[in-house]
Amino acid sequence: MITYQLITALSDAKPQSHLIARTTCNLLPETALIAEMRDPDCVTDTRFGCAPFARITLLPDALWHDSLTEELLTALRPLLALPASPDVVLDVTDINDVVLAQVLRLLFNQAHRLSDLKLKKTNESAVRLQHITALCLPEQQDRLEAIFHQQQAIAHGMVAARRLADMPSDRCTPEYVVEEAQKRCADFPALRCEVLDETQIIEQGLGLLHAVGKGASCPPRLLAIHYDGVTDGPVRCYVGKGITFDTGGLWLKEGAGMYTMKYDMCGAANVLGLMLTAAELALPVRIMGVLALAENAIGPDAMQPGTVARACNGTTVEINNTDAEGRLVLADAIAWASKQHPQARYIIDMATLTGAVVKALGYELSGLMTQDEPLRQALTRAGKQSGDEVWSLPLDARLKKQTDSAIADLCNTPGNNAAISASAAWLLHHFCPPTIPWAHLDISGTALWRESGRSVASGRPIPLLVEHLLGDH
């Protein structure tokens, strides 16, 4: 675990730390080296002649206030890839709060690297970040302590989600996700797990989840994680798509499109991370997180195009595309959650659902679809405050024809291949009663961090959802 402390003078910093500061920070020592490095327009960096520090990096002031383009994070990433010291001293005397939250999450997330999965030979003696020292003004300490505590807890949830999502799918099966979640939740008395196996899934009528998972040798699971931070009050429900690998089923994906499909369970992994963060922060709310877990495989028992399956709320769905399986498991999980808590404060689902949302919004914004305006406004505001933003897409009856079926109540994909992201959300809205506010987050663009042609789990939108929870209780 990466630890932190707040100081008001550099003399209190650990020797041989890596000092990262604003170009104009007036708490820096007045040495010839610092004077030479104070370039207002450039990043300046040295490992020579900077005692008592191992490295000094000065970054232009503008970067510390730019939450939109994340230029400060871009500058920090290569520094953290090969750290000069396990201790970082970070100047936080004049930084935008949103940027600070983003930077802290980046720093605390250094607790996870792919090498931690123990699947590759690595240099165990390599330097890794272990401690963050924040240089601040005395009057800032109390406020910053709260921010650091919150962001550390958020990062712990993100790391748990990322480690699970980064695990190869031959190991990370539905049963494996359940077992790992149970282990992590055991650390918090306020968390308890409820599991439906493949038999109970059928018995409770979750026909859509069953249809998706029945083709795989590793059977589906439904995992509900309950958090009781208070003894009564409305329950906030979160539902995550947990397709541990997506071949596309009989509507088989091409090889290149299948490569990153172990990440099709990021929604479920992030629900787990969110629950762990809520417990660590001891939020005074009640929450239920539902992970809909299945592998979409090919085989003799795989669902076929044209199959009609029935959800646990009685709604039938014609499966005209077996590669649109995520909305099927989400639909059943949303309906199941609403049955468990008919008076839920809201249900929010998250899923790596459609490539179309990436074409619309890129990799920086999650797609938000809801018909509940207060929930839309609250999530949009939380996105701006956290630096983990969403962008609304339309969701109304004009999409009705996109889910019309001649043989069932609904079909799972539109025949005209239009409005793919919104059409999926329109399907999902049928499974949440109109009395419960509901929102859908399509995180296909944001659930992964892409760099140098490679993808790893990002842990988003956990920061957004925690910020929303903090403002909602």
Summarize the entry for a quick read.
By secondary structure, this protein is of the alpha/beta class. Helices cover 33% and strands 22% of the residues.
Secondary structure: elements and pairs:
Blueprint: E1 3-7, E2 18-22, H1 32-37, E3 44-46, E4 55-59, H2 71-81, E5 87-91, H3 97-108, E6 131-135, H4 141-166, H5 174-185, E7 191-196, H6 198-203, H7 207-213, E8 221-228, E9 235-246, H8 255-258, H9 266-281, E10 286-296, E11 307-310, E12 316-319, H10 326-340, E13 346-351, H11 356-361, E14 366-370, H12 373-386, E15 390-392, E16 410-411, H13 420-429, E17 438-442, E18 448-451, E19 454-457, H14 462-472
Parallel strand pairs: 1-6, 2-4, 2-5, 5-6, 9-10, 9-13, 12-16, 13-17, 14-15
Antiparallel strand pairs: 3-4, 7-8, 8-10, 11-12, 14-17, 18-19
